[in-house]
Every structure is written in C-alpha cells, then in structure tokens.
UniProtKB/TrEMBL annotation, chains A, B:
SUPFAM superfamilies linked to this entry: N-terminal nucleophile aminohydrolases (Ntn hydrolases)
Source organism (scientific name): Roseobacter litoralis (strain ATCC 49566 / DSM 6996 / JCM 21268 / NBRC 15278 / OCh 149)
Entry's Gene Ontology BP terms: proteolysis involved in protein catabolic process
Any one Pfam family match given in the protein's UniProt record, by short name: Proteasome
Protein name: Proteasome-like protein
Gene3D superfamilies: Glutamine Phosphoribosylpyrophosphate, subunit 1, domain 1
GO cellular component: proteasome core complex
Length: 244, 244
C-alpha cells in the first residue's frame, strides 16, 4: 500500500508521501514515491504515485525519458504550457503504461492500476493539484476539496477534514500531516517511514523545502508520542455524557 | 455499509451500532443492527451485525425462532451453557444461512457475507465478546485486543486505539465511541444516525442501559461540533515543527 497527501494552502502547496512498497507482508522495501521536475524561475512539478510499482516506475521512466529526448513524439513534461496540460500528459502516459501491460502476454492476478497526484506551478498560471486516475482522466483541487489523498486514505482522513485550514502556515501543515501519517502508519503495516516531504511557495518557481523524515527522526517521534496524550486530553475537554 | 463497535472494559461491556442500510446511494433506510436476548439474573447476550441485510435478518430470525421452539433440533441461544457455546451457535447459524443462499437458484452479483459481534455474560462465566466471521469461526477479545469493529472500521479506529483504556467509566466510553462514530459518519454516507447504544455491567445479568441516539440528539450534536475545535487545540499543543 501507500499513503500520499497533496494539499493546497493560500501560501502554496505541501506534499507528503510514505516510502513503503510491498508484495505481501514478507516482501517489502523502501521506494521513493515523490518525483520532481524543476526549471528554476519557470516551473516546478511534483508527482506522487500509489498502486502497482511496475506501473508507476514505468510512468516515471517514460516521463523522464521524454523530457530528455525532444525528438520523441510525445511532448515533454518540461514543455507543456500549463499545469492542466501537464496533468493531461501524465494521465495519457499512465493510461499508455497500463494498456501496454494488460495487452498480450501472461496475466497477473493483481491488477496494474495506479493513481497519481501531480501538482505545481507553470509560469503564467496558478499553483494547483490534480488527482489522476488509472483511466487517465483527472480532477483538480477546489476551495471545497483542497487536498487529495491516494493509497490508504481512511485512517488519516478525519484529522485532515477537521483541522485543515487554507490559512495554515507551512509548519503547522507539516505537523498536521505528520499526525495524519502517524495514524495511518499505526494502523496499516503497508504504510511506513521514512516520509518524503516537499513545500512549494506560490510564485517562487523553485522548491522551498525538500526533506526526508527518517524512522528515528526526533521531531516525528515526539509528535507520535505526544499525540496520544493530546487526543485523550481533547476527549476530556468535551462535554461529559450524562446517563438518563 | 455499517459501523458497529463492541468494547470490553474492566467494569463491563459497551456496544454501539449505527442503523443505516443501503443498496446503492439512492436506496437506503434505517434498520436496527443490535439485538438482545436477556434472561434476567442468568444471561444477557447482545449481537450486532454487518453485511448483507437478507443474511443478517435471516440469522436473527433463526436464532429467535429456535429460542422459542424447544423441540427444534438446533439448541436455543437461551440455553447454551457458556458464551463460547453461544458464539459457536451463532457462527454455525450464520454459516447455515449463507450456505442456503449460495446453493441452488439465481446468483446475485453482491455476495451474501455478514459479520457479527456477539457479547454478554452467562451465569458461571465471565463477560466477553466474540467477532464471528461469515465462515462461522470466531475470535475472542483479549487484553491486547479489547474491542471489535465491524463494517466501515477505518475512519473511527485511530481514536479508539489512542484513547481506549480498560479503566474507562461507561460515560467516558460512550463519549469516546460518539467521537469514533462521528468521524465515520462524516466520512462515509453509508453510515448514519440514529445510533443504538447498550451498556452491560459485569455480573449484573441485566441490561444497564439501552438507548437510541437520534439525529437531533443534543449531546451528540455538541460532541460533533466541539470535536473539531478540540482536535485543532490538541494539534496546537503538539511541539511546533521547525524548518531546517
């Protein structure tokens, strides 16, 4: 499984992804699921993947390759004029990879599906996020739905729904995301540390912060440990139940 | 879908279930999913169901019918000597219902599976809870795993994991469960109010409290409204993130 969140604030975009991949509980490893294309001053595009690893690796490889060989027929992710066109390109490439796999040849019992969050900003446009489906189509964030989750989304969703605010600082957003990831990691063995983290500030056209939260990260540990107490205290602050 | 939780405390058992059933988002209604058999002074047995409604209704009807006709070959739920034997009876009856449905005749695209939480106390034994699978086998609560959830379990699990304590009072447990149900109801349309609630105190052999939390219940509303603020305050109490 996987857990990735992409979130739009008034001041910019924040991305967080876990790094665990597994094919059964006895076969797991650490793999990066966050990828970035940057043309400083002109565009920053960040992409996170969930689903079949062969599919998502082929997707990234094709996007990479085609951004380096301009003679390739398919246009480069570095040259699409808008984020909408970037999303269309990623969607078409994802669909192409899945179609290639599911055509002739031996069939696997597991499916080859994958989902993608892609976000960023291209000069001349606004920063935005898209959620791309295995079918190649996609939806964009809105004021009413300002974040996307892919993978194991349920455990970490209630805290995001309750505590997200478009005016959050980057620091408070990271703290919120760490709580959301911690709830998920505690509940599903197939989501695991380290976490990749990226911040993009509006109209900067460069990555503001990119870092990896390792399993022994002192700050993550302190969040994980204090959140249980904080939740219990929050419960105690609620009005008490009185029996009839 | 459905959401039910059965929870063992040092002082007794607490059960909560929602009441929404649906076959598609345009076809839903309110159905009780909590059922009780009581022989005051001798036994209290409470059962909650999730899954195919035809299956769970048939299960309850068979258990009811067989508790009223002593000549029926299968033994009555009111006469099994221990909670373990009650769980075996419920498991066998559930398996029988599913086998009857999946035999000859037209096949449905949806499956006939159901899961059950059964708990209570029979004189001479301890109060306990079992989670019964569609295959008819079951597991029992332990010190390490002191509660069971069936149905849409993920959204409401993190708060249970963090805030459950075997020494909780019944009142604090109900408050905790309401928060867990509220998180689920906010995230999944197929889980809905009203909620059924039941409390059993150890060695009382009678139901201590049984009530229904309606959609306009003032206490539930106050919990639902204050929990967002409480969570945001809890987040603010966590150590702040400092960027490198």
């Amino acid at each position: 499984m996987t857990y990735c969140v992409g979130l739009r604030l008034r001041r910019g975009l924040v991305f967080m992804s876990d790094t665990r991949t597994n094919a059964g509980v006895d076969n797991f490893s650490t793999t990066k699921k966050m990828f970035t294309w940057e043309v400083p001053g002109e565009r920053v595009i960040t992409l996170m993947t969930a689903g079949n690893l062969a599919t998502t690796q082929a997707l990234i490889s094709l996007l990479e390759e085609r951004s380096k060989t301009p003679s390739e027929r398919s246009p480069s992710i570095l040259e699409r004029p808008t984020m909408f066109e970037v999303a269309r390109l990623v969607g078409a490439t994802l669909k192409e990879v899945i179609a290639d796999t599911t055509g002739a040849g031996p069939a696997a019992s597991s499916r080859f599906k994958a989902s993608v969050i892609v976000g960023g900003q291209v000069k001349g446009g606004l920063p935005t996020l898209f959620l791309i489906y295995p079918e190649g189509n996609f939806i964009e964030v809105t004021e009413d739905a300002p974040f996307f989750q892919i993978g194991e989304a349920k455990y970490g969703k209630p805290i995001l729904v309750r505590a997200y605010d478009p005016d959050l600082s980057f620091e408070d957003t990271i703290r919120l995301l760490m709580v959301s990831f911690d709830s998920t990691i505690k509940a599903n063995l197939s989501v695991g540390l380290p976490l990749d983290l990226q911040i993009y500030a509006n109209d900067s056209f460069t990555i503001e912060e990119q870092s990896r939260v390792e399993a022994d990260d002192a700050y993550y540990q302190s969040i994980s440990e204090s959140w249980g107490d904080a939740l219990r205290n929050a419960l105690m602050d609620l009005p008490p139940y009185k029996r009839a």
